[in-house]
Amino acid sequence: QDDQFKKVVSHAKEYGYVFQSSEIYDGLSAVYDYAQNGVELKKNIRDYWWKAMVQMHENIVGLDAAIFMHPTTWKASGHIDAFNDPLIDNKDSKKRYRADVLIEDYVGKLDAKIEKEVTKAQKRFGDAFDKEQFLATNPRVLGYKEKGEAILKRMGQSLENEDLADVKALIEELEIVCPLSGSKNWTDVKQFNLMFGTKLGASADTAMDLYLRPETAQGIFVNFLNVQKTGRMKIPFGIAQTGKAFRNEIVARQFIFRMREFEQMEMQFFVRPGTQKEWYEEWKQTRLKWHLSLGMGAENYRFHDHEKLAHYADAAADIEFKFPFGFKELEGIHSRTDFDLSSHEKYSGKKLQYFDPEINERYVPYVVETSIGLDRMFLAVFSNSLQEEALENGTTRTVLKLPAVLAPTKAAVLPLVKKDGLPEIARQIVDELKWDFNVDYDEKDAVGRRYRRQDAAGTPFCITVDHDTLKDQSVTIRYRDTMEQQRVKISELKEIIKKEVDV
Ligand code: ATP
């Protein structure tokens, strides 16, 4: 697993997808830059989302709100008071942890113990072993399970009640039962706000404290009535937005999975109060279908329904994806009630209500949100696509099997040799295709090496111009995934590629 993930990170760099930010100064932790191919892949994912959400839905429109917002926004949204991570330091190792993540790691040790019991029993009972029954009845397993659940419940309650002393006590107790850090020397748990602050204005006494937005959603809420009125939108309707968000993440690890500056793609769907549960279910399914449409394997997705809910939600689920380091949240679907709009009404003194002509009533709409991290989606697509294949001739090839619709470059045009007029024809093909697709021209090295280079970069098609082309106006098209080759007319190329990359 670790190895596979290391390969993902180094391939992303080697093929011009993702670089560490300010690398010449040794980088900036949890901040990344998208390189020549990465920027295209990112754009294609964004467009794929936008098309599915905005273009295909008559009742969803777009928005591009500013990153800076009036500071009261964040008071109203609850971010100033409640957008915190509980942190604890280990005095011996000088390491800082998120207390909730640390406690989950302890519970993970109990899960590992359960796995051990299963393996032991499997060996003892052989074919007669019934795993499900064993998990449901074995007293030792049940004991571990119960303990794990009790720990998580106690943590949830303590965090909810802001009883940080108990969170610390819990960590100390756990360290004795199932040691993780080997040390008992902890500081108190402190809440740490994740928002980045900055200042607007030049002089110290008149400057206004601002925040970099930690989510794009609030830009949609404060514009709700403007969009509804000017777009003459009727409920139910949605507003979609993509853009940067910033969080001062402490446990920043796992490459572009958890960044300090990242991009979100969010859609807020405004509905009549009382109908939110139906819409919530509907959007869960719609979003899962969107993921599945990319063909990255249904077995790599699962829902995780939340029991512990954020202050604004009455239902919440994650779509989890199987990353190289296990199943993790990729997208959230949240039923946010009327929390945000009502709160902005209260703080701004402006009505944010909708008159519903169908029932002759005025109300603050309820909201169902879909929220996905663009960078996290990038990592899902990229890590899933990177494969090493053993070939019949005994060699292996590295191939980036990106869904064709998302690939940065759709086709590479390769003259077989650098003479006899072949480069000129290849250039002509590039000139024709570039109106519709990103295409590459490559004449360096033997054609086999060029194929491998394009495979590793994720290009779905290679088009080779050879001496027969001079006679028959045909070329060879090679498919990245199957390595199959076909002879086709130059005039057919556009349609063939279009069929594969259009959705
Ligand atoms: P997590 O539990 O992983 O911290 P979250 O529950 O705080 O995430 P949300 O606030 O629901 O996440 O944000 C919606 C989406 O934004 C997430 O599903 C994820 O894809 C993305 N996201 C959130 N934080 C980050 C981050 N630091 N870096 C990259 N993407 C992020």
Automatic annotation (TrEMBL):
InterPro entries recorded: aa-tRNA-synt_IIb, aa-tRNA-synth_II, aa-tRNA-synth_II/BPL/LPL, Anticodon-bd, Anticodon-bd_dom_sf, Gly-tRNA_synthase/POLG2, Gly_tRNA_ligase_bac, GlyRS-like_core
Keyword Protein biosynthesis belongs to the record: yes
UniProt-listed HAMAP family: Gly_tRNA_synth_B
Keyword set includes Membrane: no
Domain Aminoacyl-transfer RNA synthetases class-II family profile per the UniProt entry, residue ranges: 174-415
Chief place of localization: cytoplasm
Protein family according to the UniProt entry: Belongs to the class-II aminoacyl-tRNA synthetase family.
Function as written in the Swiss-Prot or TrEMBL entry: Catalyzes the attachment of glycine to tRNA(Gly).
Protein name: Glycine--tRNA ligase
Lineage of source species: Bacteria, Pseudomonadati, Bacteroidota, Flavobacteriia, Flavobacteriales
Molecular function GO terms recorded: glycine-tRNA ligase activity
Binding-site positions, substrate: R98, E215, F262, E263, Q264, M265, E266, E369, T370, S371, I372, G373
Description of how the protein assembles with itself and partners: Homodimer.
Reactions catalysed, as given in the entry: tRNA(Gly) + glycine + ATP = glycyl-tRNA(Gly) + AMP + diphosphate
EC number(s) per entry: 6.1.1.14
Annotated Pfam families: HGTP_anticodon (PF03129), tRNA-synt_2b (PF00587)
Keywords annotated in UniProt: Aminoacyl-tRNA synthetase, ATP-binding, Cytoplasm, Ligase, Nucleotide-binding, Protein biosynthesis
Domain of life from the UniProt record: Bacteria
Gene: glyQS
Ligand binding (ATP): 247-249, 257-262, 329-330, 373-376
The protein's enzyme class: ligase
Compartment(s) where it occurs, according to its Swiss-Prot or TrEMBL record: Cytoplasm
